[in-house]
Amino acid sequence: MKILNVQQIREADQFTIKNEPIASIDLMERASGQVVNWVCKHFSNEHEIIVLAGSGNNGGDGLAIARLLSNQNYSVKVVLIMGESGSDDFEQNLDRLKSLKKVEILNDFNFSNSNNDYIFIDAIFGSGLSRPIEGDIAKFVQKVNEAKGIKLAVDIPSGVFADEPSPGETIFKSDFTLSFQVPKLAFMMAENQQYVGQFEILNIGLSEEFINNCISDYSIYELTKELKLLLKVDSIAHKGIRGRATIIAGGHAKMGAVILAAKGTLHSGIGLLSVQVCPLCIDIIQNQIPEALILEDENDYVLGSFLGYNKQDVLVFGPAIGFANKTIKLLEEILKTFKGQLILDADAITILAKNREMLELLPEGTILTPHHGEFKRLVGNYSNNFEALMQLKSFCKHHKVVVVLKGKFTAVCNEKGQVSFNTTGNQGMAKGGSGDLLCGILAGIAPRVQNPFETAKLAVYLHGFSGDISLKEYGENYMTPSTMISNLKDTFKKVEN
Ligand SMILES: NC(=O)C1=CN([C@@H]2O[C@H](COP(=O)(O)OP(=O)(O)OC[C@H]3O[C@@H](n4cnc5c(N)ncnc54)[C@H](O)[C@@H]3O)[C@@H](O)[C@H]2O)[C@@H](O)CC1
Ligand SMILES: [K+]
């Protein structure tokens, strides 16, 4: 699903109005109708509806929504935040609403009576927001934010800028945001979560042709039939077709990370798995992962032996591996010689950040999987996710790598600076070991997908999906990366069918 900026969405509106053709007021009616359908589906007409309308087209939507909900027998009140004169479509909808005579139209609202059955619909500002909300409107929005009731934003919460950081201090806090046709970049930024709530994209019939032709660096990942085929192998498959992976992670007393990654790789379809371990840890792996071949390191407590790896399709390096000089040298050697798919995580990323000359050795197409703390070590500090995104794109372009920046909406970026956001996953996954499992899944599918960007997007999706199953099955407290490994079973069933 493509993410478009405000300018592009405006052009898509205009193109649709001209070429469908449809009058602007009728397009507004269609958009409002979709919001009303959604409300009717989710909330009974026992709820009291309060529509907060600005004077632009977002306000126009609000007035149409008020009329249509009233026609569905909801009790509706409208508060005109900016008076009675506004855009053409606003004024036309105000006339329609007045002639309906069923909806009370107010200039202010007494919040003291509001309760949890109230639904406040924010149609104050949409994509036309051009400056922070201030003065009386800000005071009003603050009162709504403090009031009891369900909060629903039309298109975008008032005060949130769609394409850039929102500088204002007063922003409508929604439980649900019902946005038209395409998601907005702001929805993918963790700092906006408290305002956006859960977002839904409503199809209002804007020209698909126009949207397909829009160029955008941003999209939301969706699993398609073609992507599912990436994981299929011939019925005469042998382990070579499924690929060979080696995991170089952990070290003495840090074998948990290795086991989680290794299980992730095995249960994602790898043909042959090898694990490099210190001699003292061989038994642990042989007990826990009987499928794994052991590559014995010559060091007792840290990993440091370069073992060739020339038959390997994919190599994971980093989880809990530490920072011993021998380990750093091993990574350097691998960067210089390994020709397959390299996946670098955790301590490997910190090693690169501290030994910056090694960054220039990164093979093209390497997948790096930092969380924000690790990414900041690589690129320096940033204060919001829009800045992080710019850093992400420039890092990937400069080093010609794929970076998985892990967070609420994990962003996967390729060497062209194209960014795909993932929407599977949940807060129950924010636990130690979750990243190790992701590395494992990446390694498990990489040899079949054979494209680092597609591998990373799909692995992040699968990882989040199994997290979502775990959440349903076990709840956010009980679930662990280990339950997610067992839920890979249903995850792959879904993907395979
Ligand atoms: N035909 C279309 O173009 C469609 C537009 N739609 C709706 O139209 C919205 C965009 O409408 P508009 O472009 O009229 O913009 P808005 O309705 O967001 O508001 C714009 C108005 O508010 C003023 N304004 C902006 N920031 C302000 C601030 N901080 N304080 C005070 N005033 C401020 C602007 O000067 C302008 O007059 C979308 O979000 C969507 O809800 C939908 O009806 C779908 C179809
Ligand atoms: K709004």
TrEMBL record:
Segments forming domain YjeF N-terminal: 9-212
Keywords: ATP-binding, Isomerase, Lyase, Metal-binding, Multifunctional enzyme, NAD, NADP, Nucleotide-binding, Potassium
UniProt remark on cofactor binding: Binds 1 potassium ion per subunit.
SUPFAM superfamilies reported in the protein's UniProt record: Ribokinase-like, YjeF N-terminal domain-like
Required co-factors: Mg(2+); K(+)
Record carries keyword Nucleotide-binding: yes
Assigned EC number: 4.2.1.136, 5.1.99.6
Domain of life (superkingdom): Bacteria
Annotated binding of (6S)-NADPHX, by residue: 57-61, 126-132, 155, 257, 371, 436
Binding site for AMP: K406, G407, K408, F409, T410, G435
Keyword Calcium on entry: no
PROSITE patterns registered for this protein in UniProt: YJEF_C_3 (PS51383), YJEF_N (PS51385)
InterPro entries linked: CARKD, Nnr, Ribokinase-like, YjeF_N_dom, YjeF_N_dom_sf
GO terms for MF: ADP-dependent NAD(P)H-hydrate dehydratase activity; ATP binding; metal ion binding; NAD(P)HX epimerase activity
Domain named YjeF C-terminal: residues: 222-495
Subunit structure: Homotetramer.
Family annotation (NCBIfam families): yjeF_cterm (TIGR00196), yjeF_nterm (TIGR00197)
Record family assignment: In the N-terminal section; belongs to the NnrE/AIBP family. Belongs to the NnrE/AIBP family.
Name this polypeptide is given: Bifunctional NAD(P)H-hydrate repair enzyme
The encoding gene: nnrD
